[in-house]
């Protein structure tokens, strides 16, 4: 599959193999790539790792093909039982942590909806429920909230807010998305990301500073809709930025090579990071790592009894 996708991608861009090598070499992960190695990939004699296959498709702005590779590699069609899928998701989230250490956290991830839920997808910040704005100001601080709002393009094309309501119209959860760049995100964060900044050719960021939900259904729905939003906007990210106040979720993101980049206020209760406790931490994760996880979220969501209808509001 990969060799066909690679050749199709190159020919679609009307590039020679040498041109393709030059393009990939602009990315730090492939700066030592030579034509011989690339040629062996395209004729199928050798195959790079799944992670590198996904990265190659993302460099070529083909998130759809990157997802196809991730799904094929996951092999989730062979899984029959919900228990198998849940165990796979647990293993992927917490590969280095024992189950007993996370009893309280895992019970929250396994919380399930027992009521009908609808989701309004809002692309105009003027139409956001005032309750959510107040919640985010309280969580992030008013200045930080306003700084994030400045990331929104004049046409609102890089902004999405998901509002989850029960059948009685009560707000149950929310998820906010900004499609931006690392340069712009650095302006928002007081603590600059501790990553190499000498090569920012590829610096698009899917920023989801409000992501977590204790409902598995809402949590998976939010992650999957974030990816769908990127597909719809033809946006290919290099990183995904997430803020979380959950220790278990932080450990999962760190297992995906995530780097803690900034912190909320210190707090007596909240998320532990080294010897301090914070209201939240911000984590920057390689986007290709998250793409590789998407088939698992798709499988767990498809196994759930309740599904969420997402309605885009104009």
Automatic annotation (TrEMBL):
Gene Ontology MF: a single term: DNA binding
In terms of InterPro entries, this protein maps to:
Cro/C1-type_HTH, Lambda_DNA-bd_dom_sf
Per the database record, which ranges form the HTH cro/C1-type domain?
6-56
Protein name per the record:
Helix-turn-helix domain-containing protein
